[in-house]
Amino acid sequence: MTVAEYEKCVQTLSDNLYRFALKSLRDEDQAKDIVQESFLRLWENREAVLDGKEKSYLFTIAYRLIIDQVRHIRRYTTDDTLQHRPDEGNRGYSGAGEVVQRYLDQLPEIQRTLILLRDYEGYSYQEMADMTSLSVAQVKVYIFRARMALKQQIGTIRNLL
Q: Annotated Gene Ontology MF terms (predicted)?
């Protein structure tokens, strides 16, 4: 990978990678750190990354960094601080997106990540399997279970309105 190819990769993928990290962590500074660390690792391993696989490599690294960050947070915080994030407060109803995000936060980490990759970022099942080291069948099962859990929690569209 040349410097020009790396710069093009940064320009085209940094926003998507940031959105993915931000949706997962809900902290702008941590999301920026994840993006920066992902691109740093891409540059350090540029010789090992196959041509055309930069996007998959970046999202795999970001996914693993997010998992590490979540584990770190859970290890060093109490259950109360995880339930009440400082940016949420007691804001009443602020829209259907906020309700869906609350239910997404209740999903297991792997299911939430796969839903974000599939429905928010538009990745294929194969790409998600490569990123998460799961089989395509496992990816489909996790997404199905996550969607069923969301459907059960949310109910009908009238519950959102």
A: DNA binding; sigma factor activity
